């Protein structure tokens, strides 16, 4: 039990590096002035094994499965997606065993890459995602239509951008491509090629005028306006590292496991699951128990001891099995009335500044062509 508690409340060390295998460019860290100006908002994370892609028998189906996860995360305002390897640290000496393990790790990387690609605004994808086999069919996926996927004519005070190599006249600061006709000029000198969040002046930017902005934390748009600003993706080598490598200083204060052996979700009273940083963990084809058995750090503990709540979100199910991508949607929908954030985001009311539902409507028969063009990898 002592080992379990240590894993659950594991605190990330200051200065520790993130996952070096992550295919996405990291956003820069905000200045102290920007990060302290807003109160921290409560977050929800989900964790699932990348090996669920092994159950899809073609690259198109693998891509579509990952797209379903991304859509579910965006619909329910998920802040972080953790992709873990449910085969854990077990190593088989045989050639077949090594090949199988490499395949599993490849599925985790593929899942993470597709999730990151879909979260990235379209005008930035060519900077961060070179041509790759894993992304071959992403242009056919349903877009996330997330609020931070802004069009050129949207006048919102925050935008995502990439630092360019274009020099400034004064030699100070840098230019950031934020998807407008002109790059934004920021006061900070940053490394070219990294992704940043830029806050723009509140007044309308006139055509042809220089755009001046300030680099802020990726969390600040939601802190200031309540807008959902996408998710981050993290990879974990085992289920124990999902918790021990948490990006939050105090780790996750509410850990929820999902299983058909758990407590009926309908027995949980409304708004009783209070949290600051919550995480919902899903198992793969063989359930969470399989991931625990393969994790040496947990010493094969009883699965219920690892979680604050161990729930069954689909009681009396008609099918013998529920796929992980189905469980994500079912669980997140069921938890809506059970969760209570300690620091809830304010209600967003600037809908006229972001893309509307009608902006994504296409003439009949043109969907496949337009979605293929949105791949934007040339």
From TrEMBL:
Superkingdom of the organism of origin: Eukaryota
Cited InterPro entries: Alpha/beta_knot_MTases, NA-bd_OB-fold, Put_MeTrfase-C9orf114-like, tRNA_m1G_MTases_N
Regions annotated as coiled coil: none
Disordered: annotated span: 1-37, 353-378
Record-stated family: Belongs to the class IV-like SAM-binding methyltransferase superfamily.
The protein's name in its UniProt record: Rna methyltransferase
